[in-house]
Amino acid sequence: MSEPSKSPWRHALALGGLGLSLLGGTGCEGRQPQSASCQKFVACVNALDEARGSRTNLARFEPEGACWGSPEGAKLCGDACERGVGVMRERMPELPGACAP
Amino acid sequence: MRISLMALGLLALPASAREPSAPGRLELFIAPEVTLVGLSAGVRPELLVRLGGEGPHRLRLAPGLLVGPEFTYVPVALGYRASFRDGQVVRPLVGAGLEYQYRFVSDGEPARQLAFYLEAGATFAVSSRLSVGLAGSADVTFRGGPGAGLGVRALVGWML
Amino acid sequence: MSTRLRSLLALAVLLPIIARAHSPSVLSPGVPTVIEDTSISYALYGVFETGDEVFRVKVSFPEDFALPVELFVPHREELKEHRPAFALVGPGLFFTPTAEERAALPLPLPEGAGAYVDLNRVSPRPVFYETFTRRFFWSTGVVALVVPKGDYEFWMWSPHKTRGKFGIGFGVEEGGDFSRAFEDWSVYAY
Q1: Each residue of A39-63: pLDDT tens digit?
Q2: For residue A13, how many other CB atoms are within 10 A of its CB?
Q3: Is the ipTM of this complex over 0.85?
Q4: Domains of chain B
Q5: Is C184 exposed, middle or buried (0-12, 13-18, 19+ CB in 10 A)?
Q6: Residue A11 to chain B, least CA–CA distance (Å)
Q7: How far is C73 from chain B (nearest CA, A)?
Q8: A4, B88: Cβ pair inside 8 Å?
Q9: In 3D, which of C105, C106, C82 has the Cα closest to residue C95?
Q10: Is domain C22-188 given the CATH code 1.20.1250.20 in the classification?
Q11: How many CA within 13 A on the CB side of residue B64?
């Protein structure tokens, strides 16, 4: 006959504590570099701003922006920038040279 | 309530069913499982390897195949499980470990994530080798994008 | 599922990630949803019950702004043909819709307004995995739009009168107001 564990709840508490600490410490995969497509998008919009005398808030797409806080955000922004530049090329006449392929 | 009734029912089993089990080194569970975040259902075999003789400590390996309305889910868990009150009818269990989570669809990139999981539940001895039970688990991913999940599974175990 | 159980489930799921995602909200047809703070990101969910609805979201940008936008539907077999369209409409937009896009709009374009229109015809449909809800979605494809300061509206409609759930997401910055998710978990989840 196997002997029941002498202190099962000690194990349970230790395990629970370990688990909670793991749950509390959701890992972070760190910042990502700005994508080439967003470098292009930012340069294009900056050139557009210069031509129009405006100033667009591009903070999220810039190298220190919110886009690059995680791989998922970086993927989203990278795809968005690529299509954003494409849409501008298709639909906006007389784009600055910085927007060219 | 259902669990209490189940436990009462098991207490009424013939004495032979409640006799302490021989401490086999391996235990195999077949576990129908439902995941509640990222809905899916399927089956999850669990192989438990007793660690260090007669204590509560076990190594758990649990691959699975679950299907949901939006994707197919293949998890593989490797962790620790403590199963208490060995030899008794009602045996609480707790565990923790790592889980690789692979979800895929036919027309897109699959999602690969790595998570910590916690589990808790109980098994009920039906005979010296056969047991049934219920367990719930929670997990938090730390690779492949943040997220958290919940799952429930039934356990049908056989001591090898 | 009872409200208490849904709330508990939502709480368990959302608490660990509360400051790391789009702020969710549920859209109603005919009643424009007003977004007060466009500096954070949103995921707004709705359901085409008849296919005739037009969902509207009012947004106001206090400065010239650039943000990612996409419309998505759950990746489920029964929604394979469900391709809601969206438009961002406002006075200062650089984009002029094509004649086909203009004809497809569900509401008349206000005088002097521009519009960015996505009729959701891309093929193959982009697919993404959302890690918080652990779900796959079909997307229009995310696009970064440049929006001069001013008041705008998102319009979402179902060009082929298909029915089903959809969502529109915009922005990147973390929001964190998940309070409404507790009430409407079934819309976000299943």
Answers
A1: 999 999 999 999 999 999 999 999 9
A2: 12
A3: no
A4: 2-14+22-159 (2.40.160.20)
A5: middle
A6: 8
A7: 11
A8: yes
A9: C105
A10: no
A11: 31
